């Protein structure tokens, strides 16, 4: 038999578009997407046509909202929940797409529609869910606590990534956890979703100061055994979980999807070595001048940079990279004492090799599971293999909490 590449052909020539399509299709296994309507909506969009890209996702999401509201008005609760969930998922892609547009006018209203669709899903879904307010830093963080149909075998706190939506978190973790008998908490932490777009609260690197109050709150909820609480982090949430577990040791288990040690490498790996050297030498003003010159040649890249930098609460290019470099667990990961599952997909495009590095730093407590292209499970967070991902991570978690 002749050897051939096992990689799935891209859905778009634009890597960012392709990643979003894969994520949306992957969410369909838990009802957060429909492959046919997704592929039909994005068909024929050219690599650099960001206006058409935004319009496709916004139009699809608007259509789903119309369907959802009509189903709800007709008393069709199951259909309404399904359409609201897909609408929220599609609006989330449209929010990210808006970052590359010439004007930012669409960003806030599109996010508001994303949130409205999520609440529509919660109102019509046949799940036991309680909206909670988690005390944090003199304010509260919004969360939703889901309970399974039967007595819970454990509780999972789910930590989102840098720009993940609640609908995507439902698809990547919540639905599969509920079927296995786990309580699940999802929430918006600092810099995430409602905290960023509605309150302008930025990220923070020291997520032990986030997960500790979250743990304290969840441990007091009805039906929760404080000795059987685990934590899961997806995408950049893999860093936040790894960092927090170095300080917060009460969790019974942790999962990083994937393992992330140093967030900044996803930024600096795209920069010329000479520019990085300027920063290392403290020549921030020169770095900013060189970056500004390059960004003038690519306005779309400049707008995307501004969108990605916004959650860090920074403005200058050098200031942003310096801030992101604080998001590292390199010198604290060895303090992790919690059993830790680290997922490592082949062809990880954002943090290659970091899952293995986290496994090295936590060797006494961690287990590394690889996902391959031959399984259709390569790429950041295995977007087209979420059923396989759930099977492997929850089987591991069952053995720790079962």
Structure description:
This protein is an alpha/beta fold. It folds into three domains: 15-122, de novo design (two linked rop proteins) (Up-down Bundle); 127-263 and 327-401, Alpha/Beta hydrolase fold, catalytic domain (Rossmann fold), CATH 3.40.50; 265-324, no CATH class. It has 16 helices and eight strands. Strands 1-2-4-3-5-6-7-8 form an eight-stranded mixed sheet, with helices on both faces. Helix 3 (50-73) runs parallel beside helix 5 (107-124). The protein is globular and about 60 Å long.
Concise structural overview:
With 402 residues, this protein is of the alpha/beta class. The protein has 16 helices and eight strands.
CATH architecture of the largest domain: 3-Layer(aba) Sandwich
Overall helicity: 40-55%
Strand content: 5-15%
How many strand elements?
8
In round numbers, the mean pLDDT is: 95
Distinctive features:
Rossmann fold; 402 residues; globular; de novo design (two linked rop proteins); alpha/beta; 48% helix; eight-stranded mixed sheet
Topology:
Layout: H1 15-26, H2 35-42, H3 50-73, H4 77-98, H5 107-124, E1 128-136, E2 139-147, E3 154-159, H6 166-179, E4 182-187, H7 194-197, H8 208-219, E5 229-234, H9 237-245, E6 253-257, H10 265-268, H11 273-280, H12 284-296, H13 299-309, H14 317-324, E7 340-345, H15 354-361, E8 366-371, H16 386-401
Parallel strand pairs: 3-4, 3-5, 5-6, 6-7, 7-8
Antiparallel strand pairs: 1-2, 2-4
């Amino acid at each position: 038999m002749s050897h051939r590449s096992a990689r799935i052909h891209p859905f778009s020539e634009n890597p960012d578009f392709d990643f979003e399509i894969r994520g949306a299709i992957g969410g369909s296994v838990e009802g957060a997407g429909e492959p046919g309507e997704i592929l039909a909506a994005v068909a024929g969009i050219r690599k650099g046509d960001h206006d058409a890209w935004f319009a496709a996702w916004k139009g699809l999401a608007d259509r789903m909202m119309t369907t959802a509201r009509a189903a709800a008005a007709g008393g069709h609760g199951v259909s309404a929940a399904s359409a609201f969930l897909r609408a929220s998922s599609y609006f989330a892609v449209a929010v990210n797409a808006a970052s590359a547009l010439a004007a930012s006018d669409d960003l806030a209203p599109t996010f508001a529609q994303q949130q409205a669709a999520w609440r529509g899903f919660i109102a019509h879904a046949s799940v036991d869910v309680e909206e909670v307010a988690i005390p944090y830093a003199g304010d509260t963080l919004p969360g939703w606590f889901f309970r399974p149909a039967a007595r819970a075998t454990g509780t999972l706190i789910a930590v989102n990534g840098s720009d993940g939506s609640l609908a995507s978190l439902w698809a990547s973790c919540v639905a599969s956890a509920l079927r296995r008998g786990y309580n699940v908490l999802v929430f918006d932490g600092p810099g995430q979703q409602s905290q960023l777009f509605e309150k302008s609260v930025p990220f923070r690197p020291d997520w032990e100061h986030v997960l500790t109050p979250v743990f304290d709150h969840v441990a007091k909820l009805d039906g929760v055994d404080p000795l059987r609480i685990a934590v899961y982090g997806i995408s950049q949430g893999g860093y936040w979980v790894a960092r927090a577990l170095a300080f917060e040791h009460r969790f019974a288990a942790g999962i990083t999807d994937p393992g992330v040690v140093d967030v900044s490498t996803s930024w600096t790996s795209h920069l010329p070595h000479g520019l990085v050297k300027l920063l290392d030498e403290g020549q921030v003003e020169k770095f900013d001048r060189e970056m500004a010159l390059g960004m003038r040649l690519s306005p779309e890249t400049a707008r995307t940079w501004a969108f990605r930098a916004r959650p860090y609460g920074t403005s200058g290019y050098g200031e942003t990279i310096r801030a992101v470099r604080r998001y590292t667990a390199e010198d604290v990961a060895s303090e992790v004492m919690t059993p830790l599952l680290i997922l490592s997909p082949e062809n990880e495009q954002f943090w290659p090799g970091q899952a293995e590095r986290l496994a090295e730093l936590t060797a006494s407590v961690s287990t590394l599971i690889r996902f391959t292209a031959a399984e259709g499970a390569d790429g950041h967070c295995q977007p087209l293999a979420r059923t396989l991902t759930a099977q492997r991570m929850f089987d591991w978690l069952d053995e720790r909490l079962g």
